[in-house]
Amino acid sequence: MKKTLLTLALVLLSIAAFSQEKIWDGTSCRAKQVVFTEYLPEDEPKAAIIVCPGGSYHWLDKDGEGTMVGEWLASEGYAAYVLRYRTAGKFEFVSKYRSIVRGHRHPDMICDLQRAIQLLRERYDCPVGVMGFSAGGHLVMTSGEFFDTNFLARYEIEPEVSLRPDFIASIYPVVTLSDERYVHKRSRLGLLGEGSVKKQELRDSLSLEMHVKDNTPPVFLLNCVDDDMVDFHNSVLLDSALSAKHVPHHYIQFETGGHGFGADPAKMQEETTATWQQQFIEWLHNMSF
Predict the structure, then answer these.
(1) 57, 90, 154, 275: which has the highest count of C-beta atoms within 10 A?
(2) At the topology level of CATH, where does 27-285 sit?
């Protein structure tokens, strides 16, 4: 019996190891902790989607905005890759050690996402999109607005594929880093770091409402008015900017539902947030790539 259990444990461990990939292996980047975990459908994927959980750029919600999202997307026929990108860390949140050493901060996060996009572009012929929640929603929009900036050059990587995602799903996202009425200060601090967070030029450079372009990828945008974490006006600002540039997008604004529900049924509200996944799938089905 013990031998059987040991064999089963080894099999499960091998499956888990096979399903994860260290995206910086073979490069000069030493961020070995950055991995993506793949969730594959039974048949050929309709698209590949990189999932970026939220967590104020300090940590990651690996369950409701990670594992559960990957499993759901795979069940719908999509290849999902949950990205464990670099964050400031929980210890930094308490100690503020980045006032002494650099730690993790911009552009580490967008480097991780661009590297993930590069790898999936090289792997798949199907569309490659990105989905992010909260701070992860900010990150995926950053990839859609600054795809023509090769952040990977710092690691001497010159991709031969496009870094532009084919579509973006930004769920209750952090958007502005400049508008003090609506800014989520913890995410801004996590992204920019102590000292740098006070630089207005840097804040403006990563305030997403200021950098929408005509060729920004199509966007699925969602949030709730009663969001008590990230002010709902963040999404309003982004919706207005996308409209001004005539970027195809679909904006869903629920009156209730809060923040952080992800793909966790236990955190959703019937007839509001519990419907967002199906609405996203329908939106994606109607896309032409």
Answers:
(1) 57
(2) Rossmann fold (3.40.50)
